[in-house]
Design a protein that fits this description.
With 221 residues, the protein is of the alpha+beta class. Helices cover 38% and strands 22% of the residues. The chain contains 4 helices and 8 strands, in the order H-E-E-E-E-E-E-E-E-H-H-H. A 5-stranded mixed sheet has the order 2-8-7-4-5, with no helix packed on it.
Length: 221
């Protein structure tokens, strides 16, 4: 009986160690989540960390539902004094252990996120990242500073005109004079000259005849 009892005790102890062993090495509740730095234009579903940003937000995944979070961002060398607080806030995660902060911006530099939460069993979550907005401003300024107007201010000077200009009109050859018209004018002028000469000759002849008759009449007297 004693041998059977000892065997049962050993078996029970082995079974307990098998059942409790994985739990001892599993991640404690509350410490199984992760937090990422995301560019403000990145969707919340992306789980990739983005350590170089301008405007950004904090994105948490896989924590316990309804967990309370407090976070702060501190400066880091070489751009800041190590540990000086740059920003901080609080966040309540949803039922699936997901949550995000509001979009934020910081002065260009090197920073570290410290993420604390209720039920924390180990160390806080950390993320180191850089912010750089001056480069983005220079790029956008270069793109828009010299952009030409899409619509012209006036009509194109190369558009053909419907009517010819004065210079074109003056350069065109003058129409040739009508040959018939010129001949008629000359004929009329010649006819008038001949008629006038004939009338003068007749008058002179009639005058001569009258003179001769008067002379004859005086001689007979």
């Amino acid at each position: 009986m004693r041998t059977l009892s000892s065997a049962c005790a050993v078996t029970a102890a082995a079974a307990a160690s098998l059942l409790l062993g994985p739990a001892a090495y599993a991640t404690p509740p509350g410490d199984n989540g992760t937090v990422k730095i995301h560019d403000a234009e990145t969707g919340e579903e992306l789980r990739r960390n983005e350590p170089h940003v301008c405007s950004f937000y904090l994105d948490a995944f896989g924590f316990d539902g309804e967990q309370q979070v407090t976070w702060k961002i501190v400066e880091m060398p070489p751009t800041g004094i190590k540990g000086d607080e740059a920003s901080s806030g609080e966040l309540t995660l949803d039922a699936e252990g997901h949550g995000r902060s509001e979009d934020m911006t910081l002065a260009d530099g090197h920073y570290k996120l410290i993420w604390n939460f209720d039920g924390e069993h180990g160390e806080a979550k950390h993320k180191v990242f850089w912010t750089a907005c001056e480069d983005d401003d220079e790029q956008t300024g270069g793109d828009t500073g010299g952009k030409p107007s899409e619509e012209p201010g006036g009509e194109s000077s190369q558009e053909p005109t419907a009517e010819p200009s004065a210079s074109d009109a003056s350069a065109s050859p003058a129409p040739a004079p009508s040959q018939n018209g010129g001949g008629e004018d000359l004929a009329e002028t010649g006819a008038s000259v001949v008629g006038t000469s004939v009338a003068a000759a007749l008058l002179l002849g009639a005058g001569g005849v009258l003179v001769m008759r008067r002379r004859k009449a005086r001689g007979q007297d």
